[in-house]
Specification:
CATH architecture of one domain in chain C: 3-Layer(aba) Sandwich
Oligomer: heterotrimer
Structural class of chain C: alpha/beta
Number of helices of chain C: 13
Largest sheet of chain C: 8 strands, mixed
Order of helices and strands of chain B: HHHHHHHHHHHH
CATH class of chain B: Mainly Alpha
CATH architecture of chain B: Orthogonal Bundle
Mean pLDDT of chain B: 81
Radius of gyration of chain B: 23 Å
CATH class of one domain in chain C: Alpha Beta
Chains: A mainly alpha, B mainly alpha, C alpha/beta
Number of strands of chain B: 0
Radius of gyration of chain C: 21 Å
Helix content of chain B: over 70%
Strand content of chain B: under 5%
Low-confidence stretches of chain B: 1-15, 287-292
CATH superfamily of chain B: MetI-like
CATH topology of one domain in chain C: Rossmann fold
Number of helices of chain B: 12
């Protein structure tokens, strides 16, 4: 088991190396003199020179890449141009907020999506089934920031039940914390629920055709137990992978959602950094996000292995 | 004797043309109509506009829908309908450019990767790394670095979606090259070009078309996000994302400003997604999600 | 004579709806006495497995459904009881084992759990008690090192062991009837013999009846008391093994028997008869067998033959049977 994790971590290293390379190269894409662009129009030559020195743009890309890796090795992601603190510090401050938001959204997605998918599979062509298929289609067709705006209009402006922006830390006021997360997490989850439900439905339909389901029925188990025990555990094996993907999508969706709802998380940090051309923060944020997703995949693989006894840790 | 034998649907009569099968398919038809409407809007934007999209009627700000302004006007007194149809032109144009670039780049990388074993490992690692980033986040970062413009948005989105098409082409190559008659043909000195054009590409076509339809939908959605965040074509360009961003400040007074362009994005993406589902059912039944 | 344990009368199973309806089991009747072994023989497509599933009301539905007939078991008509009552029959009074022990066992639960759960459901045993009983059962069906095996998953067991597990699970609640659908088809010849011997042993010990469904005439000859031969969803011939194998009356049975060179060899191979087994969609009118029958007559194309009694306990459905005319058979049945 430990060896399995180690091997998977080692396998992730080449991908992570390229990920860091891509993140570091982003600034190379800036056309013309990046320092001038970053310093902004109307900056004096001295200011441009200062930015250039701060970003190391007066040295070659290879040298800067080397420094970036040396920094990484020490856990140093560089210093923000705007925030007057290190990138790592800025990210660490924001991570809990984003985790809370996407965690609540994931909870909603799984708690609604999986049962809805199971129900839809048990009653093909029923209203639940139709709803699941419709929601899945809408889920891949609606821009989440627009959905958020419409929810704000509906619940914040027309009926005025919920806060339409801002974030209250849990430690400060748990009730307000929950209230401030309602609309953002629904905005995030609404589009994922249908997708997860649709995949759960398809998997369940397939599992129900298996011989072992018939065996379980032949043993006299009640239909509900056959579905909830024998079928569901087999359904969850592939669905766990999908939940992992969902979580990744929720994390990246939060970039936009946090901007719309003014929630001070990773997403908003990145969006602000992009606006203010704070490249160290952009690079660091990209890297941390991608690394999180790579690790998430690893966790999903482990869960998969834990659920499916046929997967052995010994071989790939 | 099994239930499956009995439940087998009758085979499709041979000779029925692909087009007829497509037209009989309800999903395909619905998606085509939705997408077709948007396409008509985009193509004939100049004809169906009621005013130039940038023209500001200062005396008519925040108008409700009327004969003069079919969907009303925005905070600058610009006609919303006219901006919307020009937005369709931009959105579909950007989406189509992304599809072409992704298709070409993905096919090239997929062929190289599937064909030359030495290139496979490095190319696929790079594709994996690109896919490790959340798609939209990477697109935002690239677009922001390149600077806000339509072309840069296309480049950013194409970079993000190319790994998906590359994987499809690569896997077809891997399947085709293991086929016995290809192995035999290779042994008899068949040329690679023959294999690529006669076997690999035709076999990749169906899944590729399906995937590109979905990428078109993603691209339209993603472009609206880029514009909304200010890294797409800059205002006053009437992209749907820009229009929603502008409408965001007037949600209380004029919620319609944000409503209509969002609906346009949704209907376009919905049409393309339904179209893609239909195409997948008809062209590539192996990929079919259990759908009944 | 006392009432038989299981009595199936005029069972019909159909697939599809309306104009596309296809009859897969067409008026099948047979009886099983307590403690007896009945063999149901037929090629694949003959409807033998569906008949068995129909007894337990497990026909996949949709698209299939039981369209008619009665299934009397232990004095009740199983077609008429509620689903909940049916659940109390399945696994408790009637056990069933299937052909593919790999796919018939759930891959994500331990075999011990899969044996124990029937006991928990039907006898309300707690986890520990059920587990102890499951262990004893696994030992009884001949699984070596049962305490360790119990905690393993199906893929860690050999095919023969998996079938033993299936048997243990099916017999956990000591049912009075076991339906075995091709229980040895997927196994090696030596393992086949062991499993059959085990079944016979357990049958004697528990005094249960067995319905053995197979295409393997060799298995039938050594295992069963009476045999039902099915073709195209109908019963072609029925009688004791001596009657049916010694004096086959239906042309289909004769061809089946002639097509095996020796009962001891080549038991795996399906006997071959000229022509193809018809699929459901292409079942011919009249006698289902007439396209392949060497003795087919004009009437065979038009009507389905009724079963006629050849000798006491031995019946066959064929117009070519010389002894008794259909008219007499009908009046005989009426008297």
């Amino acid at each position: 088991m430990g060896e399995f994790i180690l091997r998977r971590l080692l396998a992730a290293i080449p991908v992570l190396l390229i990920v860091t390379l891509i993140a570091a190269s982003i600034m190379q894409l800036v056309p013309g003199d990046p320092a001038a662009v970053i310093a902004g129009q109307g900056a004096s030559d001295a200011e441009v020179a200062q930015v250039r020195a701060q970003l190391g743009l007066d040295r070659s890309f290879v040298v800067r890449l080397g420094e970036w890796y040396v920094g990484l090795a020490r856990g140093d992601l560089g210093h923000s141009l705007m925030l007057n603190r290190s990138v790592g510090q800025a990210i660490l401050e924001r991570v809990p907020v984003t985790l809370a938001l996407s965690g609540v959204a994931l909870l909603l997605t799984v708690l609604i999506g999986v049962p809805a998918g199971v129900l839809a599979a048990l009653r093909p062509n029923s209203w639940v089934d139709q709803l699941v298929l419709t929601m899945a289609l809408i889920g891949v067709s609606v821009p989440n920031f627009w959905l958020s705006l419409m929810l704000i209009v509906l619940f914040g402006v027309i009926v005025d039940w919920l806060p339409t922006g801002g974030y209250v830390p849990f430690a400060e006021d748990p009730v307000e914390w929950a209230r401030s997360l309602v609309l953002p997490s629904i905005s995030l989850a609404l589009l994922q629920i249908g997708l997860l439900a649709r995949i759960t439905r398809a998997t369940m339909l397939e599992v129900l055709r298996n011989d072992y389901v018939r065996t379980a029925r032949a043993k006299g188990l009640p239909r509900r137990m056959v579905v909830a025990k024998h079928a569901l555990k087999n359904v969850m094996i592939p669905v766990v992978t999908v939940i992992g993907i969902s979580f990744g999508l929720l994390l990246s969706g939060s970039v936009v959602i946090e901007t719309v709802y003014s929630i001070p998380g990773m997403g908003r940090l990145l969006a602000t950094a992009i606006f203010s051309r704070d490249y160290p923060v952009i690079q660091g944020g990209l890297l941390v996000t991608a690394a999180t997703l790579v690790l998430l995949n690893l966790v999903v693989d482990l869960l998969y292995a834990a659920l499916d006894p046929r997967v052995t840790y010994d071989r790939r | 004797m099994t239930a499956a034998d009995a439940a087998q649907p009758p085979a499709v009569p041979a000779g029925r043309s692909l087009l007829r099968r497509l037209l009989r398919h309800r999903l395909f038809l619905t998606g085509s109509i939705l997408f077709g409407l948007m396409l008509v809007m985009a193509v004939f934007a100049d004809l169906i506009q009621v005013a130039a999209p940038e023209r500001m009627h200062y005396r008519f700000r925040f108008q409700n829908p009327s004969w003069q302004f079919p969907l009303g006007t925005d905070n600058f007194g610009r006609d919303l309908w006219s901006r919307l149809v020009h937005g369709a032109r931009l959105s579909l144009g950007i989406g189509f450019a992304v599809v072409v670039m992704t298709g070409v780049a993905g096919t090239a990388i997929g062929l190289l990767s599937g064909y030359f074993r030495r290139l496979d490992e490095p190319l696929m690692r790079v594709m994996d790394a690109l896919m490790a980033f959340p798609a939209i986040l990477l697109a935002i970062a690239i677009a922001a670095a390149l600077g806000p413009s339509a072309i840069n948005a296309v480049i950013a989105l194409a970079v993000v979606y190319t790994p998906r098409t590359a994987r499809i082409v690569r896997s077809t190559v891997l399947v085709v090259r293991e086929m016995e008659y290809i192995q035999a043909a290779l042994a008899f000195g068949a040329r690679h070009r023959w294999i690529i054009f006669r076997h690999v590409l035709p076999n990749s076509l169906a899944p590729l078309i399906v995937q590109l339809t979905f990428i078109f939908a993603y691209a339209v959605l993603a472009e609206s996000i880029l514009s909304f965040l200010g890294v797409g074509p800059p205002p006053p360009t009437p992209t749907w994302g820009n229009m929603i961003a502008e409408g965001k400040d007037y949600l209380r007074e004029a919620p319609l400003l944000a409503l209509f362009p969002g609906l346009a994005v949704m209907l376009t993406a919905l049409g393309l997604n339904i179209l893609g589902d239909g195409l997948r059912d008809v062209l590539d039944p192996r990929l079919r999600v259990q759908h009944d | 004579m006392t009432e038989p344990l299981l009595s199936v009368e005029g069972l019909r199973v159909v697939f599809g709806q309306g104009a596309r309806e296809q009859v897969a089991v067409d008026g099948v009747s047979f009886q099983v006495a307590a403690g007896e072994t009945l063999g149901i023989v037929g090629e694949s497509g003959s409807g033998k497995s569906l008949t068995a599933l129909a007894v337990l009301r497990l026909v996949p539905s949709p698209p299939g459904r039981i369209a008619g007939g009665r299934v009397r078991f232990e004095g009740r008509d199983l077609a008429g009881i509620s689903e909940r009552e049916m659940e109390r029959v399945r696994g408790a009074r009637i056990g069933m084992i299937f052909q593919e022990p790999m796919s018939a066992l759930n891959p994500v639960f331990t075999v011990g759990e899969q044996v124990a759960e029937a006991l928990r459901v039907h006898e309300g045993l707690g986890r520990r008690e059920a587990s102890a009983r499951a262990l004893a059962l696994l030992q009884r069906v001949g699984i070596a090192d049962a305490p360790r095996r119990m905690k393993q998953y199906p893929h860690e067991l050999s095919g023969g062991m998996r079938q033993r597990v299936m048997i243990a699970a099916a017999l956990a609640c000591r049912p009075s009837l076991l339906i075995a659908d091709e229980p040895t088809t997927a196994l090696d010849v030596t393992i086949q013999a062991q499993i059959l011997a085990l079944l016979r042993e357990l049958q004697r010990e528990m005094g249960m009846a067995v319905v053995l469904i197979t295409h393997d005439l060799g298995v039938v000859a050594q295992m069963v008391d009476r045999v039902v031969v099915m073709y195209g969803g109908r019963v072609a011939e029925e009688g004791t093994v001596e009657q049916v194998f010694g004096r086959p009356s239906h042309p289909y049975t004769r061809l089946l028997l002639e097509s095996i060179p020796s009962l001891d060899h080549d038991r795996d191979r399906l006997p071959t008869i000229p022509g193809m087994v018809p699929t459901l969609a292409e079942l011919p009118p009249g006698c289902r067998f007439h396209p392949r029958c060497p003795q087919a007559m004009a009437v065979c194309r038009e009507r389905a033959p009724d079963a006629v009694t050849v000798e006491p306990g031995h019946r066959a459905a064929c117009f070519a049977l010389p002894q008794i005319h259909p008219v007499e058979a009908q009046s005989g049945a009426g008297a």
